[in-house]
Q: What sequence folds into this?
């Protein structure tokens, strides 16, 4: 990007500057002997054109909406439309969550994001013994289509897009959503939204797996195939680095392991005979936005460029829409402190700003009280307002990718890409992501980073404001927090029992048998059968039980 | 002074998949010279108590971030009583509101460590609690 003579001039001037630095340091030493990013990448005192002298503008950055999409996936980015403001929400019953969604939409939120409770995520109905104590706790309890009808009551599915954090039983919840759409006279091809549907990171970092890897990958590719025919606007997967980062990974590891998961899904779908130019357009991603502001921005840009190269060079994808890494971002839950929780509002603001400067397509901002409990209506409103202030007041949305060309940012973008590529090469050598997970390699890498981070905090090398520095006495601050009514589980179980008595149980049995048959036949697609079953009100637990019987259950390999 | 190594079960009861904290604490306790048995995810209270008795553990640490803490602590403590093993120290951590701590303590939970607790604090507390328990054993 720079002329040879110019670089020489800069190099000479830099030597002079370094002499000055030496003198300064003798008098006033720097705060630390080495500086690194939050993810441990060494950071120099100063960056100049020399650090990015090999950068080729058109090859490496290009223009927004053009390969390799470093500067963004759309030509106009936020000058056209802001990112989707999408707060992850859901708790207790379908009625209460429905109320929260309507509130959020009223407050100017532009998309929904459904949080399910753990029994739903792990395929148990609310009356299952394993569900005890967990019903409605971390999200809404959904047992059948009946609950889903209540959840979206009065919310027009042709007007809002809905993201659902559901993985192992993703096909069932998607089927229920399609069925609710039909009842609202919204055909499947008009539905838009996302299912997370990313089982690999469940094995690695999040823990809501049900089935072993092989049948799980089949369920996922069945969805790819079904949706490309019938639900073309649906994002069939949200390949997630968020939870990998929350489990303790570095920024580089987040990019590397997420894209390695992506490679595994594309390979599985290609093996099934699907065209990456087609299903590749509906792959989406989900990243974390952590504390190191510039490293996070560089991370998003690096991930975009790397994925475009992977799709084009490794999978021969020519359709631009199948090369674009579109992503949702959530600010880093693990950075929220229980101490002086109001400080979290500032953390979230910086993290959200990084996501926007990194070119996110949608964003969830955490509420300041989430290290204590589920957020209250007030704290969620502040979180949403944070996004609105960035969008409408900060001015950063006026031009596309405004930090491009910064010597440091471009250098760091390159560096993150390079380091992530090294991990991907290593995983390829091991035989791919499934093998790397089975061997515990990925989990071990993440845990090592998590432990190193904790050690750094305890040694005072990593400062967390209000936790290991600038503490105050905080005694018995009885803060208003959200609590789930304990009688809610009983009501949910009563509704489930009533449903099982009122529905046509002969049809349910037949539909479940059809699922069993399809599960045994690898050439069949499970989605249409699951759709039929949810329409006759077979429950999530019943469908998962059939699949558990046919597929078996995953057992965690414990790495410590 | 009792020189036997402290034996501690670090467990994830129920369906919660957040295991970063549990694993960091398990590793810190191990690095502090304790024998740590980490159970992995999706443990029922029965499994946790059975492991603790079988392993002759001094203590059980439960990590819960799903809001189901009252349920799981109660189950584990009741099962320990049923098996005559209520002398095993029960402690825990996770996302547990301050207001819930007194209820847990009343149940018999000896300590609750919230987000931001240094692992050293857990280590020192556990060493002391186990010494006390063992002193009682010898009386």
A:
């Amino acid at each position: 990007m720079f002329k040879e003579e110019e670089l020489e001039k800069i190099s000479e001037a830099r030597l002079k500057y370094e002499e000055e630095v030496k003198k300064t340091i003798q008098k006033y030493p720097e705060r630390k002997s080495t500086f690194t990013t939050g993810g441990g990448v060494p950071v120099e005192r100063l960056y100049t054109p020399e650090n990015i002298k090999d950068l080729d503008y058109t090859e490496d950055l290009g223009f927004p909406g053009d390969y390799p999409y470093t500067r963004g996936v759309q030509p106009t980015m936020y000058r056209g439309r802001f990112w989707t403001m999408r707060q992850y929400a859901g708790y207790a019953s379908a009625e209460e969550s429905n109320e929260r969604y309507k509130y959020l939409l009223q407050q100017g939120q532009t998309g929904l994001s459904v949080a399910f409770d753990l029994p739903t995520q792990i395929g148990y109905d609310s009356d299952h013994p394993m569900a005890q104590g967990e019903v409605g706790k971390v999200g809404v309890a959904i047992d059948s289509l009946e609950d889903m009808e209540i959840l979206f009551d009065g919310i027009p599915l042709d007007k809002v897009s809905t993201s659902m954090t559901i993985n192992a039983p993703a096909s069932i919840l998607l089927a229920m959503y399609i069925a609710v759409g039909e009842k609202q006279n919204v055909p499947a091809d008009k539905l838009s939204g996302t299912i997370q549907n990313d089982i690999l990171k469940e094995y690695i970092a999040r823990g809501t797996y049900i089935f072993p890897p092989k049948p799980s990958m089949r369920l996922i590719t069945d969805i790819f195939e079904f949706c490309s025919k019938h639900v073309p606007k649906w994002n069939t997967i949200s390949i997630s680095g968020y939870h990998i980062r929350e489990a303790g990974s570095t920024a580089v590891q987040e990019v590397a392991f997420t894209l390695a998961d992506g490679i595994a899904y594309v390979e599985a779908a290609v093996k099934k005979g699907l065209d990456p130019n087609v299903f590749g357009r509906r792959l989406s991603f989900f990243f974390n936005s952590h504390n190191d502001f510039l490293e996070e921005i560089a991370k998003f840009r690096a991930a975009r460029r790397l994925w475009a190269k992977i799709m084009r060079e490794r999978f021969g994808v020519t359709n631009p829409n199948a090369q674009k890494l579109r992503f949702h971002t959530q600010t880093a839950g693990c950075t929220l402190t229980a101490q002086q929780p109001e400080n979290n509002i500032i953390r979230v603001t910086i993290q959200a700003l990084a996501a926007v400067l990194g070119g996110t397509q949608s964003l969830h901002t955490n509420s300041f009280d989430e290290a204590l409990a589920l957020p209250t209506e007030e704290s969620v409103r502040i979180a949403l307002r944070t996004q609105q202030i960035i969008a409408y007041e900060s001015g950063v949305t006026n031009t596309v990718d405004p930090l491009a060309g910064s010597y440091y940012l471009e250098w760091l973008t390159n560096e993150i890409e390079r380091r992530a590529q090294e991990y991907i090469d290593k995983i390829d050598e091991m035989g791919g992501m499934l093998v790397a997970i089975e061997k515990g390699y990925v989990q071990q890498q993440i845990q090592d980073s998590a432990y190193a981070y904790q050690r750094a905090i305890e040694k005072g090398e990593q400062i967390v404001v209000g936790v290991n520095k600038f503490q105050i006495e905080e005694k018995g601050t009885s803060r208003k927090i959200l609590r789930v009514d304990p009688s809610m589980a009983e009501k949910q179980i009563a509704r489930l029992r009533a449903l099982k008595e009122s529905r046509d149980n002969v049809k349910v049995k037949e539909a479940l048998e059809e699922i069993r048959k399809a599960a045994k036949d690898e050439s069949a697609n499970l989605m249409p059968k699951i759709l039929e079953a949810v329409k006759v009100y077979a429950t999530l637990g019943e469908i998962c039980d059939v699949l558990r019987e046919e597929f078996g259950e995953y057992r965690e390999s414990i790495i410590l | 002074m009792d020189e036997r190594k402290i034996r501690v079960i670090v467990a994830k009861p129920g369906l919660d998949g957040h295991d970063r904290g549990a694993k960091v604490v398990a590793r810190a306790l191990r690095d502090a010279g304790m024998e740590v048995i980490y159970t992995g995810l999706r443990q029922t209270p029965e499994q946790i108590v059975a492991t603790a008795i079988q392993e002759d553990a001094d203590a059980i640490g439960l990590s819960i971030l799903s809001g189901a803490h009252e349920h799981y602590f109660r189950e584990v403590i009741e099962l320990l009583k049923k098996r005559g093993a209520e002398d095993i120290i029960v402690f825990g951590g996770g996302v547990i509101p301050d207001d819930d701590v007194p209820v847990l303590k009343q149940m018999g939970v000896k300590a609750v460590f919230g987000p931001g607790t240094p692992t050293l604090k857990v280590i020192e507390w556990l060493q002391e609690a186990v010494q006390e328990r063992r002193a009682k054993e010898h009386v």
